[in-house]
Amino acid sequence: MSDTRQKKYGEAPAPRGPRPAARATERRSFHEESRNDRERGRRSEAPRRQYSSFTGEQAERPSRRQEEFSGWSRPGQREARAPRDARPSPWQMESELLPALPDVVRRELDALGQALRTVRPLRSAHYRNLPADIEALSRLLTCERSGLYRPYWSSPASTSAYLYYFLPWNVLRLARLFRSLPLPDPRLWLEKGQTPLLLDGGSGPLSVPLALWLARPEWRALPIQVLAVDNAVQPMELGRDVMAAWGDILGQPVWQVRVERGSLEHMPRLERKLADTLERQERHLRPWLLTAANVLNELSAESRQMNREDDEDEEGSGGVRRLENLLDELEPLCWPAPLNEDETGSADEALLPAALFVEPGTRLGGKTISRLRDAALERDLMPLAPCTHRAPCPLAHAHAGRGWCHFTFDCEGAPQWLQE
């Protein structure tokens, strides 16, 4: 319990001991090490893999990435709430959270490089500058986040860096996650005459749809509609072109993707707009999966200041209010109307959508997911994975931010061209 909370309930604040002089296990990114080396007049040694330069792990440790994810779905009925600790999650971690990709899927992932070169070919000079562009974008996304108020997609160098480096890694980690998560089966939607809709907020270059398409080959031929929503249209269009090129290379069908400019809060309005369009074509649209990956930590500049990583205030921040407002805006998507107005709604309980949020496994990402989980539980959303319970998270209010929920991710299954 923090000092603020102790004072709130009339208790004396707990004494604070002296802060440690140093932390031997503190993680530093390669860029932080390079900057310190330059200040000491030494030339920094390049990491063995570029991947380690944006994971934030120490150079001598194996390349691993920390992740933070949470998935929710509405319970079938609005019954009175039972105590949280009495309502276990339906997923009990009987399988590995990040299993290795099958060999056939790994070979298909290797073809992503060819699709990227088809959509955005690079000249020799631009390819030689790619490592430096990746390093600059990595700094912007980690230790120089104050510059995120400028859209980095407007820079050709940053765009190429993201497509050739960050996008493939995101697709790999999300594909491994999608292999294990208890996602609803879109074929249930089709059996009831509904078109399943994947709503991806903060979509960027379609990392989530690309990873889901890769991870679940049995769903590729289904008439799934994808609605990608982002404040920038260019990366979504690039991602759509990458999916089309990837499908052509593999000889596989791809999903129809529609892109719309807007923020996460605009997703319900844009979903209704698309639903009205397809209704006129006698194609009944129904939300199937709501996703948002690596976007909650990129809130507005004001909220981002309230969510800075060294902020110890857990209550009343602008970031918390933004997350609560987001869940309130997504409420109509979580509780779609019954298929038949004359029914009570029990006939389509199986068609309740699921929501998935994924953030980097940093302190900021872990704190954001923990706050979102608290707000979701208050709105009777049922956690599916990776939490195996509905009780308060013991790491959500760790003292001074020294602990946070995250998962480590190795680079098994990454194509050779991505690791070099």
Describe the structure.
By secondary structure, the protein is α/β, with parallel strands linked by helices. Helices cover 39% and strands 13% of the residues. It contains 17 helices and eight strands. It has helices at 3-8, 30-39, 52-55, 103-110, 112-119, 124-128, 130-141, 156-178, 187-191, 207-215, 233-250, 267-280, 301-306, 318-329, 331-334, 363-378, 416-419; strands at residues 64-73, 195-201, 225-230, 256-261, 285-293, 354-360, 382-385, 407-410. Strands 1, 2, 3, 4, 5, 6, 7 and 8 form an eight-stranded mixed sheet that branches. Helix 5 (112-119) packs across helix 11 and helix 14 (318-329) packs across helix 16 (363-378).
First-last Cα distance: 46 Å
Biggest sheet details: 8 strands, mixed
- The chain-level structural class is alpha/beta
Note poorly predicted spans: 1-65, 74-86, 304-316, 342-347
SSE string, helices as H and strands as E: HHHEHHHHHHEHEHEHEHHHEHEEH
Work out the helicity level: 25-40%
